[in-house]
Design brief:
By secondary structure, this protein is of the alpha+beta class. The chain has 2 helices and 6 strands, in the order αββββββα. It has a 6-stranded antiparallel sheet with strand order 1-2-3-6-5-4. A hairpin with a 6-residue loop joins strand 5 and strand 6. The relative contact order is 0.14. About 23% of the residues have low confidence.
């Protein structure tokens, strides 16, 4: 009987510690999704060329709503991305765009539209944009 009381007394703090850990994990998950800063395709209102990265991948800056800009980086080369006047998006499924696997770029070329898979999408700051110029 004595051992059961000790066991019960130890079980309560352990259970509470488990709840605190679960709550802390839930808060961390929410802050990660907030930092990711997803957007809807309907919010896109333009794009600009961006300097290519060191590994040679093509990049563009996509304008979203009024003051948000996102850097899109393709897997490898994307023909005519630097020169195109228009781009299209092929979104995989409904909902928000949060990462490269959520959407492909469609770029018109002289031989027809080219699909350019994305490896990365991330929100960029004004300071980053100014540094790219």
């Amino acid at each position: 009987m004595f051992n059961r009381q000790i066991l019960a007394a130890l079980a309560v703090p352990l259970a509470l510690a488990g709840c605190a850990t679960a709550e802390r994990d839930a808060i961390a998950d929410n802050s990660d999704s907030a930092a990711r800063s997803c957007f809807f395709l309907s919010q896109v209102n333009g794009f600009n060329d961006a300097p290519d990265s060191e590994n040679g991948s093509n990049q563009i800056i996509v304008n979203v709503s009024v003051n948000k800009k996102y850097l899109f980086e393709t897997f490898g080369s994307c023909p005519d991305l630097d020169w195109t006047q228009t781009i299209g998006f092929d979104q995989r499924g409904p909902g928000q765009i949060c990462q490269g696997m959520d959407v492909d770029l469609i770029v018109p070329t002289s031989i027809g539209p080219q699909r350019c898979p994305l490896r990365m999408i991330r929100k960029i700051s004004k300071a980053e944009i100014d540094a790219m110029k």
